[in-house]
Amino acid sequence: MAERVVVTGLGVVAPNANGAGAFARALREGKSGIRFHPHLRDCGLACQVGGIPEGVKELSVEYFSEEELLASNEQTACASIAAIDAWKDAGLARPTADSDQVDWDTGAIIGTGCGAMDVVAERVVPLVNAGQARRLGSTMEQAFISANSARVAGLLALGNQVSTNSSACSTGNEAVVEAFVRIREGRAQRMLAGGSEGYSKYAWAGADAMKVLCRKHNDEPEKASRPMSATAGGFVPAGGAGILLLESLSLARTRGARIYAEVLGGYVNCGGHRMGGTMSAPNPEGVRRCIRAAVAMAGVRPEEIDAINGHLTATFADPLEIESWSVALGLPPSKMPLIHATKSLIGHALGAAGGIECVASVLELDQGFVHGSLNCEDLHPALAAYADRIPHTTVRLPDMKVIAKASFGFGDVNACIVFRKFEN
After folding, report:
1. Going along 274-372, which residue ranges are E strands?
2. pLDDT per residue over 105-118, tens digit each?
3. Is 5-254 CATH 3.40.47.10?
């Protein structure tokens, strides 16, 4: 029999709060993490606001040894802090650095979209161009994209699959789906899964040049991220990390773990860059097939889904995404689940987006609420029929049972997950 898979730990480093408890409060309160950043102005970006987590350096000193600090960067630090928090939240003890014990039944799939671009731009390239490559030392260890999960494996002595996936904006969701399948098939007992992303001007500059970032609200940062709005002007870049500890139900029960939610199903696919799909636009049929497959694996009826935490980036694709949800679920606008966008509070964290938003979804399910979407009071005209299903402030929903979370990424890639409130 396939193992049931549950969520027993949560860790998050987000623009509006660090730690699951503080993050849940920030969601309920509609707290924005979008701020003006002078260094973005100074390097000539048109978008000068972003979702940059606060306090990461201070937390790093608390979480890591001096040697570990030397080997970390923004991206790996966020991933490691969130992973350690998820581990401890699940009631597990962090192993000591001098222990020879390896946890062969636990692994990690922690993705990223852009990798450590600051390390490459500020250290690797200048030293190599100056003919001083020998001074790089172990710098390349930080530049490897696999450093994300590899650092976590070393901190927690993980011996099962340890890998870093990268599928643009769907990265975090994809990691959770892959970890879920691994446990379900009995190839692991526990998996840390999610995504992390640094907050590099080098990564954001390309998107700024493509004119897909918001540039109209530099003087009003909290109004910049506007998913589903008629005046949406592009997404707001962000960074951080969101990590879930997934566990087989049998193991969770054996050790008496607290269970936040159950993962019912998930699916990953690509639209093949056909039927309107391109590197930067989704194939609607691919999106719909992904949603349908995730819901089918979950074994729930569309009308049983209480809420959708959408991808919803504040671009032209928002109305198309919601239309695809309606078609895929076979529900008219009036019968749709509540639809909301965590990006309205934190911006688009790229490879970390799915992980952070999965943490948000599980917290909402566990605590019985759906947070409001900021800045869409002027709802896009194409979404008028859905107006009653898009809350602008937090809605208490104590009887909520099922939430769906999706991410649709650059490259026409899609990932969807269905979570359910745990029931024996």
Report:
1. 307-309, 338-340, 369-370
2. 999 999 999 988 99
3. yes
